[in-house]
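re: ur question from yesterday

yeah so i grabbed the chain u mentioned. its 182 aa long if i counted rite. heres the sequnce exactly as i have it in my notes:
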Amino acid sequence: MTENLDFREREALVAWLAHSTEQLLAALREAGPDRACWAWWEPSASPHTVAAAARRRLPESMIHAYDAQLASGAAQELPTTEALDAAEEFLATVCTVTTPWPGEPATMDYHTAEGRSWRQTLDAAGSRFTRLTPAEAADGKPTAAVHGTASEIALLMYMRLPADAVRTEGDAGLLQRLRDWD
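ran it thru and got these structure tokens back, copy pasting raw so excuse formatting
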């Protein structure tokens, strides 16, 4: 898209993005983190607060920056700290739902090379997650588990990496069923 823009138009887009970001940050600061706000997600592990909306914005921006890098042929790994939070935020906001899981009850574990792990539980009550301690992660018997770097796990969750980009154990089809689930 930007290949067809002349230099002045590109500069204008960059200036617009910087100005828009500053406006967003100023509005978030003014509102304060605990203020209630509308959110597209159902009440879940992510509350309907300004802090949760701000937290949601960071991984979204990071993933779109990754998309732009990918389009330019120079995709880079996501920063580790931000990727860890992006994965947990995705589980809290996107994956925590009360819509019944249509299949047999199942658990999906996500393990990062950096040492953080989560379990997503799927059943008639919907989907929810917990952060696993190292002992729980080592002793768990999930239906399936995926292993990768924090960047790989976050990109997998945002469907920027295919399932075969990470190591999978157990029911390899569970990840696809999760991706297909409305």
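noticed a couple things. The CA atoms of residues 32 and 50 lie 7 Å apart. also The beta strands are 106-112, 117-123, 126-132, 144-148, 167-170.
anyway ttyl
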